[in-house]
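Final report, section 2: Outcomes. Of the targets proposed, DUF1868 domain-containing protein is the one most frequently requested by collaborating groups, and we therefore present its record in full.
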Amino acid sequence: MTRHTSHPSSLRRRALFAGGALAGLAYARSALGASANTAAGPNVDHSGKFGPDGNVRTWRGDTIITPLPVSSPAFEPMLRINADVTRRFRDTIAATPPSSYHMTIFGGADPNQRAHRRWPPGVALDAPIEVADAAIRRRVEQTRFDYPVPIRMVVDLADGLPETPGVFLQPETPAEGEVLYRLRRTLSDVTGIRPPDIDSFRFHMTFGYAVRPMSDTVAIQFGRSLALWRRWVADAAPVIAFPPPTLCVFDDMFAFRPLLTLKRAGTEDDRP
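The predicted structure is given below as tokens.
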């Protein structure tokens, strides 16, 4: 079932994390899944995308995203977040470059999907990633999709984080949310990739990856900062207008190379 602001789980989450500094620590331990036996903070990314020194590593794959336009009112506060993360949390968070800011619509083939055997049908599980990229591109090129133009999102000020440090987003209206989740289901049918969160995925803009655990003190500071950062974006951009979704390939988490824009149902222009 599509999730939006009135979803019961969202209300429970808001209630759970109410309360200033304690909320920051609670989110770090509970919402991010940190073990009670380890220092509180965002889950350290062990996928191999980054090294413990914070340097980006090769991690190839494809994805369907909508980039944050430089002209968007949300871009300036995202730049401020980047500067704040780099200045205050560089020992634990590897900040991603503003040129990479985007909202993911649907994750394609990548090392994580391969490890969980969520792979395009007809492509060998041990095939080079380029083979999976090409198969997904062919399937996406042959399909027209229903999605709004622009894609209108608002900042979700609820506590907690997605898989990586970022700003939660939600569709401006429940009706638009239904369209976006239907788009995810269509992309799942077209690519053959079946993520477990097909109808529960929380849209977000990632601004970094945790590369080292945080102390409790730093985690509290980070939780407070996160709430402030989300408010920066929400105040600057009450509605964020995203362009049409684009199939991209990547060699790492710092750059996403566009291949094609999803063809939209009811249009004649087949070009990106």
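Residues 5 and 11 are 8 Å apart (CA to CA).
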